[in-house]
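Section 5.1 Outputs to date
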Amino acid sequence: MILDATERPVQRSKDRGKQRDDYSGKKKRHTRSPLALVNPDQKILLFSQAHAGRHPDVYASIAFYLNHQEEVESYLKQRQQKTQSIRHMNEARFDPQGLRDRLLARTVDQQR
């Protein structure tokens, strides 16, 4: 899953507190950040309204997880299973036993 926040310029508020919340030191202007959460199939899972503050992406990630725990856990389990199957396939193709010794021997041969 990919979470992205893009800072968008907003008009400066007359309220000092909001000015402080909206000001981006990075952009040197007042901004807000809408968030998009996309899965690997490029399906948009979340597109939020623009948020102020320093870490809106962190809060949105936590909120998404809390509101969609079963889906996220299922997705993570699928990714873990896929990772394991790829690891087993690679270990079957490339025997890891003695790999270090083979690499060291190759290095010694190349130095001669």
